[in-house]
Amino acid sequence: MKEIRLHGRGGQGVVKAAQTIVSTVVDDGSYGQFIPFFGVERKGSPVYGFLRLNDEDIRIKTQVYYPEILLILDDTLLDMPQTFAGLQEGGTVVLNTSKSIEELNLPKTVGTLALLDAEPIALSHIKRNIPNTAMLGAFAKATGLVNWDKLKDHIAATFGEPNRLAADEAYEKVRIINLGGAA
């Protein structure tokens, strides 16, 4: 079972992104579960959620305490202690940022880093700074956990063709860096 934690801000599409991943893996014959967590429910507030993907039924219904993967839609959340809490040694971080790797203060547990500046992609295709569909493209390429063709179909069906184009561009542009951590 793969355990993933998503971090973002209200209005960035964290919940819809996770629901799209779940619907894609279920459509592909696997199992998925998403449990959102909202603090203050308002636009711009930190939002996170817990995603599990598996080939078998998922019975556990708790938070993800030791994620293998973090999907972070807003780099302003990097300084919050809970963002990297419990990340497994050699874990993967898929991050929306315009910063260079040298500007990021990442913990030593990060083994693979996938960097994408999703803002210009979102603005180009959907005319709004909502990074979720672009980050779905980055997530798909960085992890290989979802069927890319089916994910693009789900993105188009849920969000529309411009969002599918944003995901396509992100899939091609994401920069994946091996930081040498154990997987």
From TrEMBL:
Pfam annotation, one family: POR
Record-linked InterPro entries: Oxidoreductase_gamma_subunit, PorC_KorC, Pyrv/ketoisovalerate_OxRed_cat, Pyrv_flavodox_OxRed_cen
Residue intervals passing through the bilayer: none
Keyword Oxidoreductase found: yes
Sequence ranges assigned to domain Pyruvate/ketoisovalerate oxidoreductase catalytic in this UniProt record: 10-172
Keywords: Oxidoreductase
Matches recorded under NCBIfam families: PorC_KorC
PANTHER family per the UniProt record, alphabetical: PYRUVATE SYNTHASE SUBUNIT PORC
The protein, known as: 2-oxoacid:acceptor oxidoreductase family protein
Species this protein is from: Ohessyouella blattaphilus
